[in-house]
Amino acid sequence: xxxxxxxxxxxxxxxxxxxxxxxxxxxxxxxxxxxxxxxxxxxxxxxxxxxxxxxxxxxxxxxxxxxxxxxxxxxxxxxxxxxxxxxxxxxxxxxxxxxxxxxxxxxxxxxxxxxxxxxxxxxxxxxxxxxxxxxxxxxxxxxxxxxxxxxxxxxxxxxxxxxxxxxxxxxxxxxxxxxxxxxxxxxxxxxxxxxxxxxxxxxxxxxxxxxx
Length: 212
Description:
Shape: globular
Number of domains: 1
Radius of gyration: 16 Å
Largest sheet: 2 strands, antiparallel
Mean pLDDT: 93
CATH class: Mainly Alpha
Low-confidence stretches: none
CATH superfamily: DhaL domain
Order of helices and strands: EHHHHHEHHHH
């Protein structure tokens, strides 16, 4: 796949929906260690709503479709992570307004804007053991690949590799947001649920690109 077009979006959101449903119990277990244990349910509700929105949309503008998917997520799952991920899609969609397709440069633009949207909404930065620790390195890797002239498949694969590395790095960090803060040093060495979601998002996107 050299580009992601408007017609590819229903399949992409179905893939995200399927992955979150598949990972629901694992996310619940992760979140239950130092959180309230509802992350799996939140992500299932959010991506089911987004997939339904995209499948039923007559909107032709690719950026608008992504933004409206984010709005649907925020409505369906108004918890912290639902709002954060929804904000990411809204910001990413806004950055792609008027685009007909995503090649490597637009992919990098989307991922960077998505990450900025999540950071602005959650007031988090890299190194604080959150979803940002998977998204930020993924966005930087995508930007580097796109600027170097790589195609979409390689750019997406590099982003996924960086997201996985970011997730692993976040495990060794001290939590600075959410209920996990109360565990202080005990949060070090535990896999972060938010970073896990970020990694799943990027890896599923890369796998979708690779499979087409």
